[in-house]
Amino acid sequence: MADPEVTSRSGLWHFHFPDEGILCTVSRLRQHTTHVSGEIVLTNNTDDPARHLHQANLNFSSTAAKAALAKALSAQREDVNWNALLEQIRVRVLTDFRAGEPLVFVGDLPLLSRPQYRLEPLCPEGKISSLYGSGGDGKTQMAILSLLCVQLGRSVGSLKPLQGNVALLDYENDWETTNATIVALRKGMGWPAPSPQGFVYRHCSQPLVDEIQEINEILTAHNVVFGVLDSVGMACVGEDTSASFDNVAIRLLRAVRSTKITWLLIDHRPHKEDKQFGSEYKRNEVRSQWSIRKTQEPDSSEMTVGLYHRKVNLGKLRKPFGLHFIYEGELGDPNFSFAVSPTEIKKSPELVEGLSKMAQVKVALEHGALSVDAIAEKAGLSPAYVGTTLSRGKAKGLFTQVSRGVWAIRGELPH
């Protein structure tokens, strides 16, 4: 029997046995205590609607399981040496599965020349980033905006993209709502339609880890370089209920990382807490983490959001920035549209609260020197906390004490 043609990527194997006219796909491999199991699908390599041969979950470590499958297949095609064919599949899959990634000897290799960001400043190229906020804070609008910026190569304020095909894995909405939102944003911004097959949408309902092989196939087939997952919590629903939050989070992040593209993960935060909901691994394992807050008056067609950089693995935290959304009509209205423009966070007291305490004190002093009590009242902080912050800021060269108990931003004269 001749060796098969084999392609593999991220836990998915395709075998072609040209002499026998057999195609085989292996996916969903999982390591158990004593064996490795996975799904195997075998078909005849023809256009005949009846080309399907067999689909089953197979114990790849078991000779008995292989023999039973070979017997079942022989009843359909006696001209194939099924024991030999299955043995080639079994050996290749187990060898690849156990080998893992190849060794690389690092420390003096040539540096790769590649862009730092897929979407600056949110998403470092080739890495996983996250954006979290409360329900209704504008996370979905930011997801659509980020995807469309990258697909069309359009900048908005601080958001500067590297153009490429994109994908949205959506656990929270449907394609009709997403399509309407994209059309509304394009209309409001005067942007063209995405390139054909350049914006891939997939509604998801199963745990992401159970579908990652199929998703990898979609990403590869459409040359996707940037993906958004909305949202992390929903992508974990259906996981083993006996597993800890940490194990579920780790499995999800490993699955996302296996795609080897740039990702923005949308997540939620507990009420009144500025952190991602659930496992600390969701913060620790992403390379860049942002939070979002919004301010919007009741019955208003305008919304302002602030984005705050909370974590980065390499480099410095980026400055927070604001975006202003203006809506015309509502979702479902054929004339619905909305536009997005940059704005300053300091214009909104609600968004200033999301800044670091040092930044909040600086905003309070932007119009001139103030006493500690006046700064505390303006920033909504305690006088003791303000005093400590001013002292730390003075040591960093940010603030200066112009008279007893009165402070100003360094280099600026008191009004």
Structure notes:
The protein has helices at 63-74, 82-99, 139-152, 175-189, 208-221, 232-236, 245-257, 281-284, 349-352, 357-364, 372-379, 383-395, and strands spanning 5-9, 12-17, 22-31, 36-44, 52-59, 117-120, 123-124, 128-133, 160-161, 165-170, 199-203, 224-230, 262-268, 288-295, 302-312, 321-328, 337-343, 370-371, 399-403, 406-409. It has 415 residues and is α+β, with helices and mostly antiparallel strands. The strands form four sheets. The chain has a nine-stranded mixed beta sheet with strand order 11-10-12-13-8-14-15-16-17, sandwiched between helices. It has a five-stranded antiparallel beta sheet with strand order 1-2-3-4-5, with helices on both faces. A hairpin with a 4-residue loop joins strand 2 (12-17) and strand 3 (22-31). Helix 11 crosses helix 12. The longest helix is centred in the N-terminal third of the chain and has 18 residues, at 82-99. The radius of gyration is 27 Å and the shape is elongated. The model has no long low-confidence stretch (mean pLDDT 91).
